Amino acid sequence: MAQLQEYKCPCCGGAIAFDTSIQKMKCPYCDTEFEMEALKNYDEDLKSEGTDKMQWDTNAGQEWTENEEGTIRSYVCKSCGGEIIGDANTAATECPYCGNPVVMMDQLKGNLKPDYVIPFKLDKNAAKEGLKKHLLKKFLLPKIFKDTNHLDEVKGIYVPFWLFDADADADIRYRATKVHTWSDSNYIYTQTSFFSVFRAGDISFERVPVDGSSKMPDDLMESIEPYNFDDAVDFQTAYLAGYLADKYDVDADQSIQRANERVKNSTEDAFRSTVNGYATVNTESSSVRLSNGKAKYALYPVWILNTTYNNEKYTFAMNGQTGKFVGNLPMDRKKFWLTQLLLTAGIGALIYAVLWLIQLF
Amino acid sequence: MKKRIVSLIFVLLLVFSFAVFAVSAMDYEEAQSSDTDKDAQMFDTAEDTSVNNAQPGQLVVDGANILTNDQVFSLTELCEKLGEKNKCDFVFVTVNSLNGKSETAYADDYYDYNGYSKDGVLFLIAMEDRKWHITTTGKCINKLNDSEQAAVMEEAQPMLSSGDYYNAFVKIAQKMSYYMLPHVSLIWIPLSLVIGFVIALLIMFAFKAQLKTVALQRGAASYVKQNSLNVTARRDNFLYSTISRVAKPKESSSTHTGSSGTSHGGSSGSF
Question: How many cross-chain Cβ pairs, A to B, lie less than 8 Å apart?
Fold first, then answer.
């Protein structure tokens, strides 16, 4: 059995969790609040305690892994003794029997220990409100979707992100044109001048995030960006209490490809914005070299909401820090074509009427 | 429910307005063709009487004596009617010879020196030279542009060639009036519907785009370190240039100035 961590209230012994509104640990039973600093020390003690057991735990775990192909792990809840099943990446969850938040310490140790965490700022209700707002002012959203929409689940998850720092050196050559027109009594002349434009320089990027969990769709995670790193704090396991958390299963080397792509695009865009005063600008060649690449490991807060409509699953994500809400929605096809028809008739009639009206003046 | 009723009313209004425009356009065409019928009935084979001594401001001057008195009378009536409608003079002049002048100069001078109002159109036909000319003056220069004059003559030309002068003149007067009054060709009904469809589709795609909020980020612009962009080399080299020219679109009404100093538009041809 791997080691579990529960935070028990020193006052009443209840399981305590992180509270988004006060940004502290709070006991839901006796309302006592605890400073994160105090828990950090407490955390230290727990860690040293954990190392002793680790040898034994790991061996046992590996043996079990061979049998079960390492896809699931089981833990024993410290509060009620119930068995908690998690997959190989689960780092924090709650006990299905007693509902107490638990943290799997092994998943966050050694190389797996995140450098930073941005704590949840928005709670479950905010996520539900976010969905409600997300469904507003969407003309083509089927009305039934809004009316019958009930959530299958709402999960607050700390998603593992790789943060890449890099300095980019770029040499970019553009082919640009300037256009000058003038006319005499018979002809309109157009002079097109061609330029070769060269730009070289450097630009730095800080903490470009790449989703480190294969369970989370990359496009969904990139859509709720950006996170404001000012709120990030050094990682403490206590922040995870009450939320789900995964450890990374896509390592930094694999993730760096995606970061490179984004950095390259943005570098080209940034230098492109220094090429001004031309009618057209096309990139002819571009070379971007990255240096001082550094990767950090962080957990970012994400609310995931699932709902089912017409037997199809719809997944929404909300940035747990900024509240940015995304998620693709179904379209009402009938409404689409009906409105299309009405608009066609309306705009067509308008054009025809204008053709008459302009002749009256 | 309320929304649905509103949109229904909206659609009915649109269909109604379409119908009104279409019907008024058709009415107009019908009115024109019934004019032709009426005028054609008045055509009879009465005796030839020449109208050689024209009065100032006379709208039909049959110097070549190719119309009967009744025809002159009914053509004059038509010209008066159309002239009132368009607030300009409709003048028809027939001559045997241009007396050595060009048809343009003859028609322009005829209009300028015979007491017509400042806005008007004059159709001149010279029998010996087998020439015709349309001259436009004042506001009519722009009301009846070159391509419209060509459209007027397209139908009338064969009638002139076959010697059916009276009906050709009636046709010319009516066509001129049609192009000078507000008019929209019926072809614009399907055309404006097609344009409407395309614009509507663009609007619908904008609505559809609201439903899609998940996409990969293109770049990492939010993570650029502040003021870290540092351009170390910057060269803008001129390579070469090309010059192309296109002919200016021709003015829709070409004008010229007659001996009296008044400017005219017009076109001519042979029959």
Answer: 231
List all residues 6 or more positions away from B176 whose beta carbon is below 8 Å from its beta carbon. B82, B90, B121, B144, B152
Q: How many CB atoms lie within 10 A of CB B30?
A: 11
CA distances from A158 to A258, A318, B79 (A): 20, 12, 88
On whether any CB of chain A is under 8 Å from the CB of B12, the answer is no
What ipTM was reported for this prediction?
Answer: 0.72
Residue among B7, B201, B211 whose CB faces A140 most closely: B211
Cβ atoms of A196 and A173 closer than 8 Å: yes
Reading the block at residue A239, the tokens are 């922040």
Q: Which of B238, B234, B242 is nearest to A175 (CA)?
A: B238
CA dist., res. B230 & res. A109, Å (int): 40
d(CA B84, CA B132): 25
Using only the alpha carbons of chain B, give its radius of gyration. 29
Task: For residues B61 and B89, give the distance between their C-alpha atoms in angstroms, rounded to a whole number.
Answer: 13
CA atoms within 13 A on the CB side of A230: 2
B66-89 residue pLDDT tens: 999 999 999 999 999 999 988 889
Domains and CATH numbers, chain B: 46-184+256-270 (3.10.310.50)
- Residues A330-351 pLDDT 10s: 999 999 999 999 999 999 999 9
